Give the backbone structure.
Amino acid sequence: MRRLFLSFACLAVLLIAAPAWAQNDEPNAKDHPMFSRFPGYYIADYDAQDFGAFDFDVANETTKHVEGKYWKIEYQLKENAKKGGPIEIGRNYLAIFTSRGGVKLADDLSSTGGSITMRMPAGGKNIWLNIVINNSGEIYTLTIVEEAGMEQKVEFTSAELAKALNEKGSVAIHGILFDTGKATIKPESAAAIAPIGDLLKSTPALKLEIQGHTDNVGAAAANLKLSQDRAASVKAYIVSTFGVAADRLTTAGFGDTKPVGDNKTDAGRSENRRVELVKK
């Protein structure tokens, strides 16, 4: 009987404690760095991705597909906390956006719930926010996307690189990254350059031209010089790291004169910033 009593007592403690646990943020969850939560709410669900997408409601019942750094954060009202009304919550976030040059794109909020979409410029890109509010303000969800092109993290193996060069004569490499406005190769580029060095070492007769390309941001003359310097940096890296003879590699820079993507979008500009290898 005593064991049965203890079991019920433990169950009672768990039932009492459960609501307290539910008031805490999800593990590893946090507010977006630019937007705090409405007072009295906790994070019930959280998803952050380096690259994601969302279709944002805009005017006239249309949507805009946006890709980039992605967050989805669901907030719920804490027990005994003062609830924010849907219109109040939406307008608080809208005030942040409009104070920073942002605009409202769609709004169907009422006293029972609804959604609102807004967009603002930040750091040369757009930040999009959609808020969906339910249960008269007891739950609301932020979906945020910072526009950006996808960073290419998976590149060719040396065998795939050889096959592409033999079949097409040239290959674009997007994983070779540089400091902004400079020809300094970032350390994380090593994985993208390694297959090039391995292929050159295993194929002594192979000769390549390394071509640099930029987007159209900035002056054309500066972009041309930057693309030439970046191509030269890649050559120097390969020669010093893999012991490849310098005369097997030539370099050229074309600046922004050979775009492969739309320079009006972040994704297109990301495509245009590339190093190409051309078989000689």
